[in-house]
DNA sequence: ACCTGAACACCGTTCAAGT
DNA sequence: ACCTGAACACCGTTCAAGT
């Protein structure tokens, strides 16, 4: 009874892997993890399931492709891999939220405007901002990680962070550690934030972040003070915090650790720190 | 045709939420995320689905309870919350892998044996070791996070880390940042490692980690050198790295960042650092 | 209060058949 | 080579009925 093929294809364009992945991303954006269904997909693309299975092996591969496409866009890459979206114009728009992404109004730092530190922050915020339009991203990243740990997406993130770690002057023996720490922090913080955003939307679609965080910290304040003294102590602090600021502070924390631990001076690259 | 109720209940113990959660953990451990099914559960518990639904609202709640039980055990807590396993003996054993968990043979550090730093490392390794028996844990943590960001599990981890952050002497204004950074790193690194373990087991059940890491770094070396110069450069380094050492190095990196950024000296707690 | 189990709606996937 | 669509196996969940 509902209208079939809600959005007719703009041209007589044949079905392609790119179009399928594009539709998958749209469904995920619109209705979350549960919104991507082969039936919803066939309706949207006006085909049968068999047609989709001719281009894509199964649902996991489709999810991986959707995840890879969004991450690639967030990292501003035009990759040659097959798991990419066809329309870079549309993806570029996705990576650009309402507010300016560029780290314009940032606290005064001692580095030059385009230092490796700044580039790391830019990469991190690229992913951070991508989850605003794609709240399903962190969960899917985790799922893909559990399916194939060194699939296509993780290496891409690792590579872009790693290059800046190298540019930072970290001795080669610590590249892996430093890059891993940064990537792990970014993925962890990004996931937490996606969850906050999603639940803020769910609880009250038109309520703003401040109100949601107030409610969340209220929930924290309701915890047993004997079991959760620390959380109760930071509840007020959480209510007032700004997510982006917090995210940046965490990155700078890791960057400081890398600098302090792996960039002592110019010599003693041969003697790694004690711990 | 298979034997029903493979493990008959030891006593005439009635069905309870605890028994259901326990069986859920066993199924997850045995067959992963896809292994937990209401049909498998009813077979194992020798009941019908309706009986389970009387004790548990739905599958998500069951997964959350299983996740919470394993995390609580890993943190060595006996919580009063309902989402816990009934048999602490069995859970205590789960938290204790074949090798000693206690940070006995660690690199020489400048802190006292039971410093907050050491306690943070112990908490982190508690979670780290838990995923050896429960590879599904990180993914489920991510899923629960996306379902209810400040559910029961995250606060528990946040609380135990946060207390040590406070004990570290971090000024109150930075508690949230410091604890968040640690938790995010731990969750991120833990997830990565669970993925590595799982895929190592999948690729070849009897092959050891070294061989698997060799294969993984081979895969890295197969990447396009133009697109992935950094990953290619660290591929060899990855082959030789020890996971636990790497995990610890990351934690120490964050700890160093916290110390350097938030513990400058005793005064100037009123003037936060520039960045 | 606690449990049973048939039944329902929905899902991913397959495959013989078309063009 | 590419697509169709009925059909299959399986899943989470419900609910009238039992004790």
From TrEMBL, chains A, B:
<dbReference type="InterPro" id="IPR036271">
    <property type="entry name" value="Tet_transcr_reg_TetR-rel_C_sf"/>
</dbReference>
<dbReference type="InterPro" id="IPR004111">
    <property type="entry name" value="Repressor_TetR_C"/>
</dbReference>
<feature type="DNA-binding region" description="H-T-H motif">
    <location>
        <begin position="37"/>
        <end position="56"/>
    </location>
</feature>
<feature type="domain" description="HTH tetR-type">
    <location>
        <begin position="14"/>
        <end position="74"/>
    </location>
</feature>
<keyword id="KW-0238">DNA-binding</keyword>
<feature type="region of interest" description="Disordered">
    <location>
        <begin position="95"/>
        <end position="116"/>
    </location>
</feature>
<dbReference type="InterPro" id="IPR001647">
    <property type="entry name" value="HTH_TetR"/>
</dbReference>
<dbReference type="InterPro" id="IPR050109">
    <property type="entry name" value="HTH-type_TetR-like_transc_reg"/>
</dbReference>
<keyword id="KW-0805">Transcription regulation</keyword>
<keyword id="KW-0804">Transcription</keyword>
<dbReference type="Pfam" id="PF02909">
    <property type="entry name" value="TetR_C_1"/>
</dbReference>
<dbReference type="Pfam" id="PF00440">
    <property type="entry name" value="TetR_N"/>
</dbReference>
<dbReference type="InterPro" id="IPR009057">
    <property type="entry name" value="Homeodomain-like_sf"/>
</dbReference>
<protein>
    <submittedName>
        <fullName>TetR family transcriptional regulator</fullName>
    </submittedName>
</protein>
């Amino acid at each position: 009874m509902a209208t079939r093929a809600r959005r007719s294809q703009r041209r007589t364009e044949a079905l392609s892997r790119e179009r399928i992945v594009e539709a998958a991303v749209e469904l995920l954006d619109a209705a979350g993890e549960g919104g991507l269904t082969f039936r919803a997909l066939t309706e949207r693309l006006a085909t049968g399931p068999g047609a989709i299975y001719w281009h894509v092996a199964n649902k996991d591969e489709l999810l991986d492709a959707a995840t890879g496409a969004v991450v690639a866009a967030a990292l501003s890459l035009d990759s040659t891999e097959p798991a990419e979206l066809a329309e870079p114009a549309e993806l570029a728009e996705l990576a650009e939220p309402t507010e300016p992404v560029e780290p314009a109004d940032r606290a005064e730092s001692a580095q030059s405007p385009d230092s490796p530190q700044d580039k790391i922050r830019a990469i991190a915020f690229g992913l951070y901002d991508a989850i605003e339009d794609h709240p399903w991203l962190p969960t899917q990243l985790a799922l893909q990680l559990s399916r194939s740990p060194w699939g296509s997406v993780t290496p891409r993130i690792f590579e872009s962070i790693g290059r800046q770690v190298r540019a930072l002057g970290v001795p080669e023996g610590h590249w892996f550690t430093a890059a891993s720490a940064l990537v792990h922090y970014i993925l962890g913080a990004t996931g937490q934030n996606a969850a906050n955003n999603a639940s803020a939307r769910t609880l009250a679609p038109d309520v703003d972040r401040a109100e949601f965080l107030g409610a969340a910290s209220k929930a924290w304040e309701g915890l047993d003070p004997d079991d959760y003294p620390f959380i109760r102590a930071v509840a007020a602090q959480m209510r007032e915090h700004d997510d982006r600021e917090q995210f940046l502070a965490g990155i700078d924390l890791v960057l400081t650790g890398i600098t302090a631990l792996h960039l002592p001076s110019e010599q003693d690259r041969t003697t790694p720190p004690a711990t």
